[in-house]
Amino acid sequence: MFENVKLLVVGAGFSGSVIAERIANVLNESVLVIDSKLHVGGNSYSETDSASGIECHRYGSHIFHTSSESVWNYIRRFTEFNSYQHKVLTTYQGHVYQMPINLKTVNDYYGLNLKPWEAQEFIRKEAEMAGISEVRNLEEKAISLIGEKLYTAFIRGYTKKQWERDPKELPAEIITRLPVRSNYNANYFQDPYQGIPLDGYGALFRNLLNHPKIEVRLGVNFFEIRDQIPSACTVIYTGMVDQFFDYCHGPLDWRSLRFEWETKDLSDWQGTAVMNYADEEIPYTRIHEFKHYHPERKAVFESDKTVICREYSQTYTPGKEAYYPVNNAENNRKYEKYQAMAKAMPHVILAGRLANYRYWDMDQAINNSLCLFEQIKKDLENGK
Ligand SMILES: Cc1cc2nc3c(=O)[nH]c(=O)nc-3n(C[C@H](O)[C@H](O)[C@H](O)COP(=O)(O)OP(=O)(O)OC[C@H]3O[C@@H](n4cnc5c(N)ncnc54)[C@H](O)[C@@H]3O)c2cc1C
Hints:
CATH topology of the domain at 7-40 and 209-251 and 326-381: Rossmann fold
Bound molecules: flavin-adenine dinucleotide
Strand content: 15-25%
């Protein structure tokens, strides 16, 4: 079944699908794409919920945004985007605030009416008042940047839920800066290009992979067919790097998520796509309401049904989905060992977030694959 395969892509997320598309369209070479999931698109996948007609992002909200004109031009060959601009709100002690912290958040929280230049000075004094001279953990770092009150309201509980650890026990390096906007800009992303694929991510991926030279086999786990892959086959692997090497340097840590879905007989549940929950006592970190990503789908948008999804953070254990790498010094050291092993294997190319043990936005994953493709092309041209 795999004996004639010369190019195998493991994983049909953005990283694998972009490389396969380039191989087929640019090189006119045959490529086999396998994925253990029963759909293409990896973690970015969305599909229309048959009962409500709402486009649901199965692995949490995915908003496409980029500053890279080349990535934007590339991806728009496979989809049109709507004009959605992402904004995030957070609920704390029954009040709703804008996120990231901006002038409105500060004024609403303190009951003030500060001007931009006053807000900067105000935050500086709040931070100074905390009197932190030596930063030893995440809590102290955050307080030294924004002061105790804003930290307690907007960072402490959310971070504790995200990591299932007290911020006092987390390394300061997790945050490099905590942007506090001294204006009323409520746009979550600052990139010039942003939107949601008009027909959803599922359709985008079907377009990406729609080429006679691309064969997609779903529900196929690489580790179950590995011994059938010819030794001369080039394997572009986008799965977990530690698993690829049988965890020989030990497993890498990940954070996982759990999603709890609910359909409501209501036109609108929370009035926005994403509502964060900053209180420690509320067990979920955020609620997604997917119809807000497609206001242009008028009939569905105005219908009396809505789909919401509560997101809970949890520790990764085998069998769960790996979402966020835990890039502490120990894990990064392990990862470097795996990376060195991969470099010594001429027929193996590691691509994507799981194999590179990085958090990458979709545009970064696409960009990485476009660059890798250029390398693959050169190698093939040089007969390697
Ligand atoms: C909760 C969450 C929200 C996010 N929101 C955004 C956002 O709003 N905007 C943004 O730009 N980015 C967002 N991202 C990042 C985005 O998900 C990634 O950039 C994207 O998924 C990277 O694609 P990938 O192909 O590298 O990985 P994936 O999408 O994970 O694809 C890897 C594929 O490989 C398959 N695979 C793994 N192992 C095997 C195996 N052994 N055999 C066969 N198949 C295998 C998997 O099933 C998967 O389909 C978010 C990420 C998370 C976790």
